[in-house]
Amino acid sequence: MDIANKNKGHLDWFILTAVIGLMLFSISFVFSASAAKSLSQTGTTSAYLFSHGIKVLIGVFVLFFFAKVDYHIWQRYSKLFILISFIPLVLVFIVSGPINNTYRWLDLGPFGFQPSELAKFALITHISALLAERQSVIKTFKYGMMPPLIWAVLICGMIAIQPNFSTAFVTYLIALGLMFVGNVNLIHLGNTLIVSLLGAGVFALSASYRVQRLLAYIGMSGSAEHVEKYNYQTSQAILAFGNGGLTGLGAGQSRQSNLFLPESFGDFIFSIIGEEYGYIGAGLIIFAFLLIIWRGVKIVKNAPDDFGYFLATGIVLTFAFYAMVNAGVNCGLLPNTGVPMPFISYGGTAILIYAAAIGTLLNISAQAGVFPFKKSLMNLDSN
Q1: What integer best gives the mean pLDDT of the chain?
Q2: Domain membership of residue 14 as a residue range
Q3: How many domains does the chain have?
Q4: Which residues on neighbouring strands pair with residue 113, listed in sequence order?
């Protein structure tokens, strides 16, 4: 019997172990990074711990559920999926008030919902479906590249005006990367990229706070006070890594999380991991991400059809881009973007959507017969 066929239905245990490990360990990370803020707000150190723990447990259920759902269903309903995801992007401006001068959240009573997290994966799914359906005309601009490009501009444009420029920009680049993998005309893609970068540059420079943040990052700000104001979080994150050194200060011993580093349990949780567990602990987190990406690439190469190939590519690109950008910001290699670290940062919407995406990736893997232990499979095949 063919090994691939015999092992269809098996989940990729490398990915499954790495993702669940990150999710479970994140409970401890979030507790340590949020304890001081929780105590100052609620009088107890565990408010964020319980909230995050519940979201992680739901996320594990979501992961296994989507791993059992045939990924082809998302191809059939991709247009409906993206239309549904577009509605909350509009509603945030109508039914929700601004939070810190942004319209990124829908208030659902005891829960908050971030529409951009759903929309970016709906976009990847629909672009994958369009690319798979239009391979015969993919080199034409009107029928090949224009349909996915229109959706990318619409979704990313709505995210950008929340404003959430960093998420919009990264998601748009991922969409273009997916079109590149989908064999669109390279001249069309190149021209689109040039125009898009010019447009993104104009939009980014239209907000003074983004300009000031960029100037502070590249060291062209006029005063030390100015640099401190716009580069404060990154500076504190770098201090956290310095405090931790090679082996870290120990679990729960972070200094920077004691109200020195704002949102230490959100976008900057990676620096707290570095402070408490050292370069070794931070390196293990990076290793887990690389393991997931490596297995994801293997799934892409073995995808059973075009849609599976494009969808797996989009999921892996999204996971890799957002992990890389977050780590880069925490280490001071990139300007502050407000991008969370997948499966690690505090936040319910992101955890659930990433869990659904990885579950879908595992379903593609199962249908492709991708299984990590080849020697064991050969032994099974000989029995």
Answers
A1: 88
A2: 3-382
A3: 1
A4: 106
